[in-house]
Specification:
The complex is a heterohexamer, with three copies of chain A (419 residues) and three copies of chain B (120 residues).
Chain A (H helix, E strand, L loop, with lengths): L6 H26 L7 H28 L21 E2 L2 E2 H19 L9 H24 L4 H5 L7 H19 L15 H20 L7 H29 L4 H15 L8 H22 L10 H19 L18 H31 L6 H6 L1 H6 L10 E3 L1 H5 L2
Antiparallel strand pairs in A: 1-2
Helix pairs in contact in A: 1-2, 1-3, 1-7, 2-3, 2-4, 3-4, 3-6, 4-12, 6-11, 6-12, 7-8, 7-9, 8-9, 8-10, 9-10, 9-11, 10-11, 11-12
Chain B lengths: L1 E7 L4 H10 L5 E9 L5 E5 L2 E5 L2 E10 L4 H12 L8 E6 L2 E4 L6 H5 L8
Antiparallel strand pairs in B: 1-5, 1-6, 2-5, 3-4
Helix pairs in contact in B: 1-2
The chains are: A mainly alpha (419), B alpha+beta (120).
Bound molecules: adenosine-5'-diphosphate (ADP) (3 copies).
Chain lengths: 419, 120, 120, 120, 419, 419
């Protein structure tokens, strides 16, 4: 690591960190627009609360587990409670900033899972889940790939900004959660339509903005690699959006807005592991290719009993796996010397390494998630009963409505008497 | 006294209002409703979910009138709302026992004659 | 002619519609309403303000039918809307003097028989 | 049985509800509507477009009551809704052939007496 | 061009590019709030889809046409498919980043046009139009002004961030589109009111944020010129907003929110060509002056048969022309040596040059747009029929509703049977 | 002051300024979501209009009053109309940029006050108020603390990014305004419920994003102090959000979304004065501690006759005071040599200095605000009459509705005849 702090790298990482933090509220709107109005706040809160409950455990323990230097499997406790995390240089930026930047990744990864269990999981158990999950599942996997001497990193796995660590990981957890928590009572019985598609588009737009910090910032410097990752983060979703729209048009003759928002996110997911390793034209290829499996996975999922309500698996899981594998195909030392060459450049082995990283992540994440949910289920009821579900989570979990008119709402007496 | 209840197309409302005002009907209440009838159904798709929309947006008009006013009121609505395509809507005329104007307590006929309203 | 007005739970609407279509009732108008009855009240809190929600969301269905159709219509609504818990709602049957189909000017029975509507 | 339909100002609703509960009327259905009457019209401007708003927001209350209950109900609404300014609204009392409580199938009087509802 | 990549310039341009990309979703909300609810998604999609369809052709062809070095009129094909666009320095930033930055301009310029044809143009033809338009109209004009040896640039035309290239250009196209596509069936017959004014304000706020990248980034460096352009991008809309509000108050006694959002955008448009060339006080003057013509153009337009539905001409056309001309008045070498002096500083000629740039842009853009629309009209119906228009574009073009309640929506049988 | 302009510092401050400017629209949504639909636009406009009316007087006079060098009490007129504000270095960034950055603070501080008088104050008088207030109250106090030789700064008061200057100041003004303007006619009589909680969450999310520029930018450089301030701006709200949620759960068993949004803002307010002076763990402590007084102040306020409608006092006043005092406790030279040591590090005196700064701000702000409102009341009616209030401010003040359906809206005749 370079010893000195570099001003422009610091400037860029300050911005990148802010952008990634903003992605979690953005995700709330992307998700919140697709649920029913009676569950809008609950869905938003599943993202917003991750800022608090994942953020705090990350500061206390998570960062150390992920970026400590104990072993190839776990970072250990050296940084617990931010011990030794100061203004010293970590790479070319202040250590505190590196910590903050990584924290924003932990937060949004946990929030991503919520898409699989919206409209039915009780809020208290959810909070416990994401906090534990970020420590027990996310932090170790982050260590494996990005941590000092993490075994997947050592193996040569290429994951520029978190295709496996963030997206495949969250998707595996989402799949398990959807199965263990179970389907919504109305799933496949009644039509469940998005309450506010503009919110979903707003979320997609802001996610894209934030993703520039997510991928571009992962260069940890304001240099050519950052510029490459950035440009690819622009081009891949562009390609996915075009292909997705064409698929929509060929299928139903109508280019849907929910589809456009989904396509953008799928493209962003797919380029995440590759962003700083591949050429811009390769980014376009990755974005275009990634549209197909996710598009059809999404159609298929809806015909099954699996109520992965907002399709975390189809979008982040399938998209992340495709992206991680294609990284092993398109990666090129010519574009990033500190990266690697992919199958296309004579290094077929890379594909294998990528596959190992994916499988390890899937296996550990699924198992860990299963255990966590089951343990929580021992101490608390994880899902609402049908009556509460019918009334909506906003009222039953938060005692609020997203859009109140105030009609027929009477101030409680004690309240009135006070004045 | 009668209560004339009409269900019409939203985009005909302004025409119907004009006709009603021209017919000197100055008091009415409307609400946004959805209707099902002979209209061709609409299919919408959200990701994997495809749904058939059984209902289309309509506007419901409610007008309390004295008996001799029913005919002109119905005619005004029909001439303002008719397009000739399926989905133009319906008019129901209901008997009313009693009408009260809240502001004054006036009853029946007096109750439905708004104050100083030039009928357009 | 009668006007059947029913207030039901929103999440029962699709079941009620299916029952009505099965009963060959093909024309109806619905609106979103809020009701107060025996349901347990809900308390909501916004910062320091705590309020009691006296009203819960319901759907209002309005169906104009010829007299012999009242019974099947009411039965269809009841079987689709009943859950057995307090809050299932009410049905009101109102007399109607006259019905007009705006599109054609047809009156009464003719007016409420939609064109080429397969009853489901 | 009668159906009392009232159109009132939105900001009077909570007062009307209190009066109704005090009058032991515990079952009712409301909906958001817009009305036209003697109120002074409002003009709005959006960029170059200037429009006259013919309608102002109101709330519609629908209450099914047994005959002897009509009087107290009407009075409760009037005393809760009256401000004395143009725009207070109207009350219509409609005859009802039949009332059904969906949950139990009870009819008429029985149907409109909610379960264990303290009238406030 | 400086040979080396500069870290801080790169950091700033990374951010600027992200901000400008975000302007296109923001524009979607600015526009989407002003249409009727039944057309909200269609209007939003007209912006979002530009990210895909303009973005992809820009990568394949547009960038080369605009920034290749073939001739004063056209950049040629040297950069087709990003050939030769690598990590090498373009100015002081990586070439890929310069490409990405310019791409965000192409995207939003095309999206701006949609304001003139919302609520009635069919979506397929619209997609074809913006893709072709960005290649045939935008890219050449960008080349004339900003490209290597572009003739307007050579002539000395001052357009710091796109007053003519972006705004006058889009407005000319908008005018032609509005005329060729024709008015909405309800235009001037029924009241067409904004479905969600808060969305319009949200769009205006985010557009302002993005515009700092648009104008400030056009310095292509994190230097004094960037700071000047930035500060002017803050001050001009401030002045326009104040004057606009006062005009509203004097006219109707009421300061409208739609007016405030419009005023902000007009101020941003007006300062765009001048941002890096004039003093902060001049920026205030430009913003204040620009309020008048656009304000009254907007009122007048509404009394005509021209259904430029969201007033692209009054806001971007008039505002852009006023800004471009005033650049010729207020520009000062004292504030930017690499800029020029305006009439106020004894160089009346500059005004003439500005006028030429405006006229050339208007003429070429109008002609090009006309041809493109007419050609598309040969192969496809460009506008919806009145029935579809009545049902709303969201359903007819996208098969969706912006705000669904799910009432009376029945899951299709095949669907249900699957589970 | 360093003589030379530094590229990376400039890059970071360009971004920071853009982010802080965006906070004012964000505040509009935070506030606008909590009022009734009939007052949504008016509440939004109270923030947006500050961009215009405070922005312009700041350029003409405010900046000079705050950052001129006349005396310890007032900056004087040397910079009036931006005289002498050029591209020269102010610190390590261009002077114009420093001016713009400070302007964004003046704007949002004035907008914060609006939370106390929403839904009833007439718009014209409001515009006059914020313009005058920013000159007569804000600018001098800013000078005291941050200005050249300002007396509070000289006294050693620590206020990194505006805990007293911005938040305590705005809260004192809000208290006076709420009292002088009086309660809403429905206050404590009818239930007044938030029309759009998602907007409030959106506002909170964007405010957090902007606050990174607010606190991080206050280092006026892209260095370790900026990174520290940034990280603390992430950690403090994280802690507040967690504590707030737990308080909600213990109180009513339900974690409210409005509460989450409020908690985030309180945490941001509390860390503002401390951001660049304290350790990350101290930031967590400050965030956690600050939750309590604001939480209960908010509950208490609602039982009183004081209609501080959106709780500016409880959130910004109490939060700001707690933060300013805790800065005097946790500040540590070990983390920022150019800062100071707090009571915890043996310098109890600092607490006293902080208290003086708070009291001086409270006293001057309250007095100044009172005078301004009373003077305006002499020339114009400050609040709406009950009838207008009942119809809603959107129609009575702005002649618009936030969400129109167009039903029953007839185009005015003259209008129609024109076409
Ligand atoms: N029997 C009915 N009761 C109540 N409303 C009805 C009835 N039939 C039709 N409507 C209303 O009228 C609208 C148009 O009716 P429809 O039969 O589709 O067209 P038309 O009247 O032109 O044949 C429906 O959408 C519905 O709102
Ligand atoms: N007398 C009434 N008039 C009009 N609507 C009523 C009346 N009573 C009940 N309702 C409607 O029916 C709904 C359910 O009624 P409620 O008495 O709570 O349940 P149940 O009918 O099962 O006893 C109420 O929310 C209200 O909308
Ligand atoms: N004839 C009518 N039929 C139905 N609703 C009416 C009628 N007249 C008035 N209303 C409703 O009552 C409201 C107030 O009526 P209006 O005549 O304006 O005031 P007032 O009753 O005090 O004279 C109107 O906005 C409308 O909603």
């Amino acid at each position: 690591m370079a010893p000195a702090i570099n001003g422009s790298d610091t400037a860029w990482l300050l911005v990148a960190t802010a952008l990634v933090l903003m992605m979690t509220p953005a995700l709330g709107f992307f998700y919140g627009g697709m649920v029913r109005a009676k569950n809008a706040l609950n869905t938003l809160m599943m993202s917003f609360s991750a800022l608090g409950f994942v953020g705090i455990v990350w500061a206390f323990f998570g960062y150390s587990i992920a970026f400590g230097t104990l072993s190839p499997l776990c970072g250990g406790s050296s940084y617990f409670f931010l011990r030794g995390v100061g203004l010293n240089a970590q790479g070319t930026i202040p250590h505190v900033l590196f910590f903050a930047y990584q924290g924003t990744f932990a937060i949004i990864t946990a929030a991503l899972i919520s898409g699989a269990i919206v409209e039915r999981m009780r809020f208290g158990p959810y909070l416990a889940f994401i906090a534990l999950w970020s420590l027990i599942v996310y932090a170790p996997i982050a260590h494996w790939v990005w941590g000092n001497g993490g075994w997947l990193g050592a193996l040569g796995a290429l994951d520029f900004a978190g295709g496996t660590v963030v997206h495949v990981n969250a998707a595996a957890a989402a799949l398990v959660c959807a199965i263990v928590v179970g389907s919504r009572k109305d799933y496949a019985r009644q039509a469940i339509l998005p309450q506010n598609v503009p919110f979903t588009l707003l979320g997609a737009g802001l996610l894209w903005l934030g993703w520039f910090g997510f991928n571009g910032g992962s260069a940890l410097a304001a240099n050519g690699t950052a510029a490459l990752a950035f440009t690819n983060t622009m081009l891949a979703p562009v390609a996915t959006l075009v292909v997705w729209t064409i698929l929509d048009l060929t299928r139903s003759g109508k280019a849907t807005a929910v589809g456009a928002a989904t396509g953008i996110v799928v493209g962003l997911v797919a380029i995440t592991p590759a962003a700083g390793f591949v050429s811009p034209m390769a980014a376009i290829a990755i974005g275009a290719i990634a549209a197909f499996p996710s598009y059809f996975a999404l159609l298929y999922r809806a015909t099954t009993r699996l109520d992965d309500s907002l399709d975390v698996v189809a979008a982040h899981g399938v998209g992340g796996i495709v992206g991680a594998l294609l990284t092993g195909v398109f990666a090129s030392k010519a574009w990033n010397a500190s990266g690697g060459d992919g199958a296309l450049y004579g290094n077929a082995r890379q594909l294998g390494v990528q596959a190992i990283a994916i499988l390890a992540t899937l296996a550990y994440s699924a198992a860990g998630t299963f255990v966590i949910v089951k343990v929580i289920a021992l101490v608390a009821r994880v899902r609402t009963d049908p009556r509460e579900e019918g009334m909506g989570m906003d009222f039953t979990q938060h005692g609020e409505e997203a859009y109140s008119r105030g009609e027929g709402a009477l101030l409680l007496l004690e309240r009135r008497s006070d004045t | 006294m009668k209560l004339v209840v009409a269900v019409i197309r939203p985009d005909r409302l302004s025409y119907v209002l004009e006709e009603l005002f021209r017919a000197r009907v100055a008091g009415l209440t409307i609400s946004r409703v959805q209707g099902h009838g002979g209209e061709t159904e609409r299919v919408e798709t959200y990701r994997g979910t495809t749904v058939k929309m059984e209902l289309s947006d309509k506007v419901r008009i409610e007008i309390g009138v004295s008996d001799h006013f029913v005919e002109p009121t119905v005619n005004a609505i029909v001439s303002g709302a008719r397009t000739g395509d399926v989905g133009d809507g319906k008019i129901f005329v209901l008997p009313v026992d009693r009408v009260v104007r809240i502001r004054t307590g006036e009853e029946d006929r007096a109750a439905v004659t708004p104050v100083g309203v030039p009928a357009d």
